[in-house]
C-alpha cells in the first residue's frame, strides 16, 4: 500500500503544480492584457489629447540645448546659471556662418509650427477656440505684468506699506506652530485674532509709521519719474498736474519734430528741382 500511497500523493502534487502553473500563466496573460489596455496611454487624434503645438526654440536656444550636455560632462556639479553663462559666451564667439545652421533650423521649425497651429485650430470647436483665446490673453497679461514688475524694481519703486497683520506675521513667523508655511500662517492668523486691542496697538502704530514712510518715498520717486520722462508710471491721484504737463511736453516735442522733418523734406525737394 505504501507505493500506491506514494503514487497517489505524487499524482496529486503534480495536479496541484499544474493547476498553480496554469493559474500563474493565466494571471500573467491577464496582467499583460490589462497593462496593454490600461497602462499604455491611448493616442487620440483629437486636439484635446494632443494639445496645442509647442512653440519652437530660436537659434540660440537650440545651441544651448546642444552644448549643455558637453559642459555638464566636462564640469560635473556645475550650476545651471553657470552653464548658461558659458554657453552664452560661446554663442557670442561664433561667426554668422557658424550661427547660420541653428538659425535656419529655427526658421524651418517656425514654418512648421505655423502649419501645425493652423491644423490644430481647424480641429477646435467654437467653444474650444474661445477658451484657447482666453488662455492666450491671460498668458500675455501675466507676461506683461511680470515685465512691468521687473521694470519697476529696476527703477527702484518703493515697497508698499505693511498692514498690522503683516508686521505681526513677519515678527513671529520663526516660532509659529506648524510644519508647512500654510500651517504656520494659519496659526499666526488665529493668534492675531485672539489678541486684545491693547496688544494690537503697537502693530497698528508701526503700520501707520510705515504708511508715512511709503507716502514720502513714493512721492519722491514719482517726481523723479516725471523728471526722467516716465510720467506713465505716476499715479494720477498723486501728481496729476506734473503728469499732464510732462505728457503735454512730450506731445509738443513730437509735433515740433514733425514740423522740422516736413521743412527739411520741402527744402530738399526745392533743392533738387532747382538743380
Automatic annotation (TrEMBL):
GO terms for cellular component: mitochondrial nucleoid; nucleus. It holds the Pfam family HMG_box. Residues 132-160 are annotated as: Disordered. GO terms for biological process: regulation of transcription by RNA polymerase II. Residues 53-121, 158-222 form the HMG box domain. One of its GO terms (molecular function) is DNA binding. Residues 53-121, 158-222 bind DNA. SMART domains: HMG. Residues 136-147 have a biased composition (Basic residues). It is found in: Mitochondrion matrix, Mitochondrion nucleoid. Keywords: Activator, DNA-binding, Mitochondrion, Mitochondrion nucleoid, Nucleus, Phosphoprotein, Repeat, Transcription, Transcription regulation, Transit peptide. Binds to the mitochondrial light strand promoter and functions in mitochondrial transcription regulation. Component of the mitochondrial transcription initiation complex, composed at least of TFB2M, TFAM and POLRMT that is required for basal transcription of mitochondrial DNA. In this complex, TFAM recruits POLRMT to a specific promoter whereas TFB2M induces structural changes in POLRMT to enable promoter opening and trapping of the DNA non-template strand. Required for accurate and efficient promoter recognition by the mitochondrial RNA polymerase. Monomer; binds DNA as a monomer. Homodimer. Component of the mitochondrial transcription initiation complex, composed at least of TFB2M, TFAM and POLRMT. In this complex TFAM recruits POLRMT to the promoter whereas TFB2M induces structural changes in POLRMT to enable promoter opening and trapping of the DNA non-template strand. Upon metabolic stress, forms a complex composed of FOXO3, SIRT3, TFAM and POLRMT. Interacts with TFB1M and TFB2M. Interacts with CLPX; this enhances DNA-binding. This is Transcription factor A, mitochondrial. It comes from Pogonophryne albipinna. The lineage of its organism: Eukaryota, Metazoa, Chordata, Craniata, Vertebrata.
Amino acid at each position: 500500500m505504501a507505493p500506491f500511497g506514494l503514487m497517489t500523493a505524487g499524482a496529486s502534487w503534480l495536479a496541484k503544480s499544474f493547476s498553480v502553473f496554469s493559474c500563474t500563466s493565466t494571471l500573467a496573460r491577464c496582467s499583460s492584457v490589462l497593462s496593454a489596455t490600461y497602462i499604455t496611454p491611448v493616442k487620440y487624434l483629437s486636439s484635446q489629447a494632443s494639445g496645442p503645438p509647442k512653440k519652437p526654440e530660436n537659434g540660440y536656444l537650440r545651441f544651448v540645448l546642444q552644448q549643455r550636455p558637453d559642459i555638464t560632462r566636462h564640469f560635473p556639479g556645475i550650476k545651471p546659471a553657470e552653464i548658461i553663462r558659458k554657453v552664452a559666451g560661446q554663442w557670442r564667439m561664433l561667426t554668422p556662418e557658424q550661427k547660420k545652421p541653428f538659425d535656419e533650423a529655427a526658421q524651418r521649425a517656425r514654418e512648421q509650427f505655423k502649419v501645425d497651429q493652423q491644423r490644430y485650430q481647424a480641429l477646435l470647436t467654437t467653444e474650444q477656440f474661445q477658451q484657447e483665446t482666453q488662455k492666450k490673453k491671460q498668458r500675455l497679461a501675466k507676461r506683461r505684468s511680470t515685465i512691468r514688475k521687473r521694470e519697476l524694481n529696476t527703477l527702484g519703486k518703493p515697497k508698499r506699506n505693511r498692514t498690522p497683520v503683516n508686521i505681526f506675521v513677519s515678527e513671529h513667523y520663526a516660532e509659529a506652530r506648524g510644519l508647512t508655511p500654510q500651517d504656520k500662517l494659519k496659526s499666526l492668523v488665529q493668534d492675531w485674532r485672539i489678541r486684545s486691542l491693547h496688544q494690537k496697538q503697537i502693530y497698528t502704530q508701526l503700520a501707520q509709521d510705515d504708511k508715512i514712510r511709503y507716502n514720502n518715498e513714493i512721492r519722491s520717486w514719482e517726481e523723479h519719474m516725471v523728471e526722467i520722462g516716465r510720467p506713465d508710471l505716476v499715479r494720477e491721484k498723486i501728481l496729476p498736474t506734473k503728469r499732464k504737463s510732462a505728457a503735454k511736453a512730450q506731445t509738443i516735442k513730437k509735433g515740433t519734430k514733425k514740423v522740422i522733418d516736413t521743412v527739411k523734406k520741402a527744402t530738399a525737394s526745392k533743392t533738387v528741382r532747382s538743380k
